[in-house]
Structure formats: structure tokens, C-alpha cells
Amino acid sequence: MHGVTVRFGATAALEDVSLEARAGEVLALVGENGAGKSTLMKVLSGALAPQAGSMELDGERYAPQSPLEARARGVAMIHQELALAPHLSVAENVLLGREPRRLGCVRGAELRSQARAALALLGRGELDLERRVGDLAPAERQLVEIARAVAVDARIVVLDEPTSSLGREDVARLFELVARLRERGAAVIYISHAMEEIFALAERYCVLRDGRSVARGECAQSSPSALVRAMVGRDVEQHVSRRASAPGDVVVRLDRLAGEKLPTDASLELRRGEILGVAGLVGAGRTELLRALFGLERVVRGELRVLALDGPRTPRERWRQGVGLLSEDRKREGLALELSLADNLLLPRASALSRAGVLTRSALERNAAPWLAKLGVKCAGPGQRAGALSGGNQQKVALARLLAADADVLLLDEPTRGVDVAAKAEIYALIESFARGGERQRAVLVVSSYLPELLGLCDAIAVMERGQLRARRPVSELDEASVLREALGGAA
Fold this sequence. Notes:
By secondary structure, the protein is an alpha/beta fold. The chain contains 18 helices and 24 strands. The chain folds into two domains: about 1-230, P-loop containing nucleotide triphosphate hydrolases (Rossmann fold, 3-Layer(aba) Sandwich), CATH 3.40.50.300; about 250-485, P-loop containing nucleotide triphosphate hydrolases (Rossmann fold), CATH 3.40.50. The strands form six sheets. Strands 16, 19, 20, 21, 22, 23 and 24 form a seven-stranded mixed beta sheet that branches. The protein has a six-stranded mixed beta sheet with strand order 7-10-11-3-12-13, with helices on both faces.
């Protein structure tokens, strides 16, 4: 790619960017949220036409007019914001646009066979091919997206935050797949905010900052801190600095709580001034636990008390109580993507901001602007459509809504998914300040698949294993290995 430039009105998303990917190599493409990584890959995959610049593929001119043409040339893209058809089956999504046909008709048996083979490469051949993708969990949808890319004999495979929804076992399988792609001569472009993934997989790196390529080189001759410095233009503290807690009153109490499917048995206490983590494998019931607390999943057994209210409640009642939920699935239920940033940020507070029942656009945007600035959201302004932001900036908006609502209890499901290193540090500091800061203590219950995050941020961790929540333990007694053993069903 040579001198690629993309502008949206007066905003330059990419300015004179060049990139080279080699056969049989993994190239890491890194940068902050909004740096232009996904935009550059949209140009490569035919989803976006640049205003300037050119591309070559295997020494020949390459200018795809559509993603379908790019796929025909051997370019496979795995998007961070999944590009699946929710009303179609798993098999139909895996072979979408490449369906085996005869006399104009899709050959169903062959389609299912090819889809099964692609999923088998990921070690997930057991996934139900007839199931609607819209009914799958985020981790399963991520695997379908990856399977769709490997179902074609791609020359270039782009993976944009491919592990953001995956558990440890599926991440290991993905790494094996990347190794196989490299061995068969494919060029792999790997986009990730996880430094450990980049240095485990990639030979070379290219850093984007504010739409420009600012650094490139060999991973073996660099370090995580050097890459982060190139990304943000300054040194960033990558570790969580946890302050001592002084827990107050109990605000959430569960006793043998069970949902329709998950969790099967969950007991815990959460106090003011405390950050409590929930660890476990994907599918263990962590997300279902938060959703049951917030009123999005039915509780069938056990006792539940949140603040002053006993028993299950609706999400509307939880909001009014001062309980906020950050969903793990920002695209489907975390944000209203067609509404503005101001609308998304202040929906829970809309009535409080109105005068005589009237809420003006200027009032919304005036109140939203400080929160966008506080979380460092890269945007054109509070009136911009939420769906126009990068995934990481969308995540910041979803978190800002909870903070702006001044909630007493935060239920955070994967709070830093798709967020860059510098923004993670800022989010950790905000969560710390929320729980401990000032005269008013609040409480945080956080689910994360990233164990260093839980161990660094939380006061204590409870492990969910096959629907059962084990007893909480102070983080001083835990490490990654002991938490993982518990999650797998072994002794700590």
C-alpha cells in the first residue's frame, strides 16, 4: 500500500500511509483507538475507496471495487465489529458470498461440509451449523467470523482484534491457525491492543498515530513499552496502581442464586468502596450473572438484594436505583448506534436535564461534551453518530454513560474490550476513582477474561466454574495460574 489517504469531509482518517505485508509473515498493525487501523484495512478489503494512493498485490495493480472482489483476489478480513448476517445460519454465514452452486442453486450438503471443515480448523467442528448466528454468544459469533475468513484459500488474512471475545482455549487455537496460515505462505496482518499477542505472533510491526504511519520495524528489536510510546507519543504506565480499600456497607447480596440456565449457584457480597472481580471460562455463566442482577435474565431460585430492594427487578428499576450495566456486546445492546453520542451518553439522565418537560439538543450536547473529553473519546463532537466511531471509542462512550448517570453500583462486563493501552490505563483510574473516590463510596462488580486486569484492578476475585460461583478470595492470595486452575475445576 503506497501513500493511502482517506478523508471524511475535513477530517483526515488516513494521510499518506504506506504498508508492506510479506508472504509467510505476521505483520502487527498497532495504534490507539481512532488511529486509522480499521480504516486502512477497509481500503485493503475493498470496503472503502481512498482519495489518494495505490495498492499492489503480488506485484500487480490492486484496486478492488467491493469486498467480494477483494475476496476473489484472496483478501480475507476478520472485522472487530463483526460483519455477520444474524438472520442466517452458521453454515450460511461461513460461506456467505462463496456458496457452492449448481445450475444457480446452492448445494446445501456441500455448503455444510465446507463450513464444518472451516470450523474444524478452529477446533470448533461441533458448533451447530443450522443455528441462527443472531442467537449465538459473542465468542461463538467471533469464531464464525474467523471461520468465514479461513474458508477461502486467502493470500492475505487480516485479523482485527480477533481475540476480543474469545476464551483462553479458543485463543490458543487461533494462534495455531495463524501459524498454519504463515506456513502455507499467507500474509497475516494482525491488529491488536494486546502487547503479549503481538510479540508472541508477529515478526514485524507498523504503528499508526492520528492517521499517519509513524514507526515500523522488527518485533525482535523492539519492546512493548517502545511500541506503546510510538502509539501515543509518550510513556504510559501499563500496570494498574491499586489503592487500599476500606469497604463499607453491603450493597449487593446473593444467596444460592440461579437463572434459567446459568448461573446454577451463585452467592456473594459486594460492599461500597470495593471492586470485586468475577473470573472464569467463556460460557461459565459470568455474563448471565450480571444480566440476572440487572434484570435482563430471569432468576428462578435463590435470594437477591441490591441496595434497598429485595428480589429481582426490571432494568428500568435498576437504573432508578442507581445500578448501571456495561454490556459485553456494545454493538447489539450496549449502544444505540444510529443515535448521537450525546443521546447515548445521557439517555438515563434525560428527564433530569429537561426543563418543563422539554429537552433541547443544545442542552444534551453541552452536558455530554465534558464526559467525552474526560474519557478521551476521539470524535467530531457530541452530535456525531455513535456508529461512526471506532470500536474502542464506542466502548468509552458506553462506559461514560454509566459514570454520567452517577450510579451507586457498576456491573462491568469486559470493560476494556477493544480499547487501546493508554485508554485502558485511563479506564482503570476512572474505575478506581469511582469506587474509592471522594466522600461517597460506590461498588464495582467486574467480569473480565483478561486475568492481569482482574488481578491488578480488583480487591478480591470469585471464580465462576460451570455455573457455580466459588468463594471470593483476596487478590493477594491469587495469581494467574491459581485462578485458571479454579476456572478449570481444579483446586486453587
